[in-house]
Amino acid sequence: MPTAATNPTERHRAGGVPTLTALARVALPAIACALASPCAHADGPPTGLVPIANLSAGDSAWMMVSTALVLLMTLPGTALFYAGMVRKKNVLSMLMQSYTIAALVTLVWWAVGYSLALTPGTPYLGGLSRAFFGGLTFDKASGLVSVSPIAPTVPETVVALFELTFAIVTGALICGAFAERMKFSALIVFMTAWSLLVYVPVAHWVWEPGGWLAGRGVLDYAGGTVVHINAGVAGLAGALVMGKRAGYGKFSMAPHNLVLTVIGTGLLWVGWFGFNAGSAGAADARAGLAMLTTQLGAAAAALAWMGMERLTRRKPSVLGLASGAVAGLVAITPASGFVGPNAAVVIGLVAGVVCFYGATSLKHLLGYDDSLDAFGVHGVGGIAGALLTGPLADPAIGGSAGSLGAQALGVGVTVVYGFCVSYALFWLINRTMGLRVTDEEEREGLDVAQHGESIE
């Protein structure tokens, strides 16, 4: 993601965490201004215009391919990964959620999400220069195109779309924690609010060069904190507020079709090369290294999880192998452009072990129903990967020495802020329109109850 070309230790330094009121003060004027005149923004005329000849065809092509790969992670990667793990009566609802989130978050990102997340402003939120994608310029007659500091040799339109795919997959990952019991209407309200109040500010803090966590040396190459910890703790909050599925612990809730899950895992694994290597912002040596470390981390974690199953349950499972691969991909994400191959294997091995316990012992110990282990894999894996990035980061690769203290700060802030705001949103929606379907609808299945369709 946006940290690739910038030394985080040289970024603007400031402190504090924004309140919901502060977020509203920025977002609401943006909407009013853009509706009045989509191209006239409070921040002044568009900046970052360069001659089209300054762009790199190779970098631009790689970023467009990476964008497609990251979108593939959600459509249909995450959709199939989750659909295979639920019961047959809820398969269509899981597919519906992923595709709806892709459409919904796209419009949120277009309206104010991109501008508030990834343009200069304050250390806590960006400005309004790109609200409703105003200022994303391509003028063939004048020979000018807008670019972003994130990838200065690539058109800003491509950067905005690349970053959008990250926002989409983050929202889709959350759904695994409360699968099989949430109202579809409540999901839409939650995802809209969460994208603006949690994803956008955290992305700005970590990835925009002027963000306050970036200024404190927090390293997150491609989304360990912004995507995976964020999604994991939001899912945990939802599982706690909604409670367990009816019959949880009493009746079998085995996956409906692990073939779908394995296909989804394959799409996620391949798509992750765009996720991590694309975050270099260029088709360069660092992108190549990020691709290599991604493969190593995933492979090590898949085998580690399989080994833990062999030791504790005597038989390695297909679901465990798939979950381990995803755990390794999650954990290597924040480190992929900062560490070498050996460190990537270490991160993968650690992730395979800790995420195995996160998806098994932890949720049973604490008594919550994380349906598809969104927190156990993405939350726990993201935390492990983010923390390990500190001591394992190689300055010769990323230009910055990592710090365990800085990484712990980034993890702590993301966990506390993300969990608290997510919990508050779930609580508020539950008190107003309700979060859960009725007991009868849950027994019937969300496919029929929420969408009037079913798989025969």
Summary of the model, kept short:
The protein is mainly alpha-helical and 456 residues long.
Unreliable runs, pLDDT <50, ≥5 residues?
3-46
* Overall 3D form: globular
Mind telling me which CATH architecture this is? Answer: Orthogonal Bundle
User: DSSP strand (E) fraction?
Assistant: under 5%
At the fold tier of CATH, the topology name is Ammonium transporter fold
Average pLDDT confidence is 90
Indicate how many domains the architecture comprises. 1
Largest sheet: 4 strands, antiparallel
Helix content: 55-70%
Task: Please name the fourth-level CATH homologous superfamily.
Answer: Ammonium transporter AmtB like domains
**How large, in whole angstroms, is the Cα Rg?**
21 Å
Look at the helices and sheets and give the structural class: mainly alpha
Tell me what the structure shows.
By secondary structure, the protein is mainly alpha-helical. The protein has a single domain, classed as Ammonium transporter AmtB like domains (Ammonium transporter fold). It is 63% helix and 3% strand. The chain is built from 15 helices and 4 strands. The chain has helices at 20-36, 57-83, 91-118, 156-174, 184-207, 224-242, 258-277, 285-313, 318-332, 341-366, 374-392, 395-398, 404-432, 439-444, 446-451; strands at 49-51, 138-139, 144-148, 151-155. Strands 1, 2, 3 and 4 form a 4-stranded antiparallel sheet that branches. Helix 6 runs parallel beside helix 13 and helix 9 (318-332) crosses helix 11. The radius of gyration is 21 Å and the shape is globular. The termini are far apart. Residues 3-46 have low confidence and may be disordered.
